[in-house]
Every structure is written in structure tokens, then in C-alpha cells.
Amino acid sequence: MHANTLFTLVSALALTVSAAPVAEAEVAAPVDKRAGACSSYTIINTRGTGEPQGQSLGFTTINRRLTAEVPGGKIYNTVYFADFSQNSALGTADIINKISSTLRTNPNECFILQGYSQGAAATVNAMQHITGPNFDAVKGAFLIGNPNHKAGLACNVDINGGTTTRNVNGLSVFLGSIPQNWVSKTLDVCAFGDGVCDTTHGVGINAVHLTYPSSTSSQRLGVEFAKKQLGA
In 3-state terms, what secondary structure has residue 182? Predict the structure, then answer.
């Protein structure tokens, strides 16, 4: 598969998305913020195979809404090749280093991790190396189309927040999966039939794997999950 295959297909899909706007979240009361809310946070965004350096199409709508609704947010786009070799080690290292370097200058910073496809694998691989205060600083991880999706984890949901992909495996689960101590602060979204994260009902990078950028339900899940984890 050519290195730009996923990006080309996702881009084409994004251009054909229905013009129907994403439903606006209900306006919450401007008081009674939960204790421990994050006043400053960084979203670490890790793109999928073939997407150019920058923010993944899987999260652009989520992050536009999130940073508009929750003050203090910044977006960091993980630096790595994201090429067809599927070697995401540089991405994993960059995620780890970004958290450590940020906390050295701002020890109260919060983080939300995001990963699409190969970017989800890079994020999962980083989790086992994020410990102590760094682990505490990461408030949530939101993954889509994760090849390291492991059957049976409580964090597994389908694209509608349901359980149709709770008990399926991704195509690279044998290389590692979400550590148990991360399950409670992770949402691992796998669309039914996505052959990357659901090998029971799909095969490889198929049309379903490319639906996340155009899915209003996936975007809703991403915004609601991050707001909850940030204490907003």
C-alpha cells in the first residue's frame, strides 16, 4: 500500500461528507465547575498512515469544538513519519517527550491523547512508558480505528458509544494493547466492520476505517469524553 493511501482516501471521504452540521452541545450552566478542572491543557494529536504532518482529519472537528468550549487548550501534532512501514517508534517517543518537557515548565498542565489508526498504535505504545506524575497529568486518551484494540476491555465502544465492538481484536493486538491502568481513562472507539480494529467483521483498511472523520457520533463522543476527563 502506498504511503499516502490512507490520507488520500480519508481526504476524498471528507470532501463528500454531508453538509449537515454537527449537533451543537447543550449549553451548560456557567457555574459549579467540578473540582480539579484543568485550566490549561494540551491535546497531543497523532495522525494515521499517509496523513501529512499536522492534525489528523479524524480529530479536526473534535478539537475545534473542544478548544472553543473549554478554555486553555492547545493542540500539539505528534512528529513522526506515519508512513506505510508502520514503524511508529518516533511518534511514541515524541508523545512521551512532549509530556515530560511540558511538565518541566508547567507542572500543572493536563493532557488529552488522541490517535487515529497508526497514530492510535503509537499512543498505546507510549502508555506503558508514561508513569508517575506524567501518568497523572494525562487525563484521557481517545483512540479511533486502533489496530491494538483488545477484546473485552471496558474502554471499548463502537462509533455510537455502544458495545458491538467490545469483544473484537485489532490486527496488531499481538504487539500490545492498552495497559490495565489506562483503561479507566481511555475511550477506544472502533466502528463495527473496521478491519483495522475489528478483524471479526472486517479486513484491513476498508471503507469503514475511513468513516471516523465524517462521523458526527464519533465527534460527539470525542468532545464529550474530553470535556468530562478535563473536568469541564
Answer: helix
Which DSSP string do the residues of 89-152 spell out, in sequence order? HHHHHHHHHHHHHHHHH-TT-EEEEEEETHHHHHHHHHHTT--HHHHHHEEEEEEES-TT--TT
- Give φ, ψ of 15 to 5 degrees: -70, -20
| Res 37: pLDDT | 84
State the cell numbers at 73.
Answer: 487548550
Q: Would you state the cell numbers that stand for residue 93, as one nine-digit string?
A: 517517543
pLDDT at 156 exceeding the cut of 60: yes
Closest CA to 106 of 140, 78, 133, 141: 133
Residue 36 has what pLDDT?
A: 65
Cell output for 131: 508513569
Of the candidates 166, 108, 176, 173, the residue with the CA atom closest to the CA atom of residue 139? 108
Could you tell me the three cell numbers for 91?
511518534
Range list of β-strands (E), 130-213: 138-144, 156-157, 186-189
